[in-house]
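>> received
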Amino acid sequence: MSAPYQVIAAELRRRIETGELRPGDRVPSTRALVRDFGVAMATATKALQTLQQERLVHAAPGVGTVVGPPPRARRTEAGSRDGDLSQDEVVRTGIAIADSDGLAALSMRRIATELGVSTMALYRYVGGKDALVARMVDAAIGEFPLGEVPEDWRDAVTLVARTHWAAYKKHLWLASAISLSRPQLVPRLLPHTDAVLRALRGFDKGAALSTIISLFAYVRGIALVMESEAQAEQDTGVTADEWATHQTDQLAVLIAAGNLTAFRELLADGFDFDYDLDQLFEFGLDIFLDGLAARLR
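>> returned
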């Protein structure tokens, strides 16, 4: 009997060989495979790695895993390619994998398979996995330069917060890759912190740092909700609105049983809340800034 990862790989291989999936087509992500085949993330990852080793698929930056051999494999002759790499290529491949399948699917072995090199060769360019992730964060943040920072403190803080939100929306793995308790030294992220520090010159130093940490934690926290919701939707095929609709009857029972009068008033008259994370982000940011304004008076 074939192992589960082999069953998945065989099915995807069949789709490629029959033309159901053509060169350049995106293949199901690991999250989609977890949902469709009812397997663990590691199993789905191994299935894609099997096809990558066969040069049937590769990770394409900004797209996901697609049909066809990796570009490096197409343009070089067979044999070792360990010396024919660049740090940027390794980082961009890592970002492509994380964008497609999440940070959990990222490994040095998978990147090596994508690039057609030995795993050990990668360490000469990016060090270990932690160093690679830090460089991925730096590259992802670098896609969103601040530009000219406004003089007004509120506009400056808003610019930084919205810039981070945009980066988190494009790269869903980014929020979980950034640490607030042990922050990585990310060159392209430091100017963002500096911009907020300059905007908060009216605060004492301790309050300014506390404000920066709170601001970054707020934006990152909402982004983590976005990441988990995207994964839940891929795993279940159910949107957040559909999930909420399915919970309506059970919620009504719990409200009645607990005599939760405020909940009952909230849901009266068919009230329907639009759970939009962009709107929630802006609402929370306004509250945060209003609180800062009160402190500055």
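>> The chain has two domains: 4-127, 146-296.
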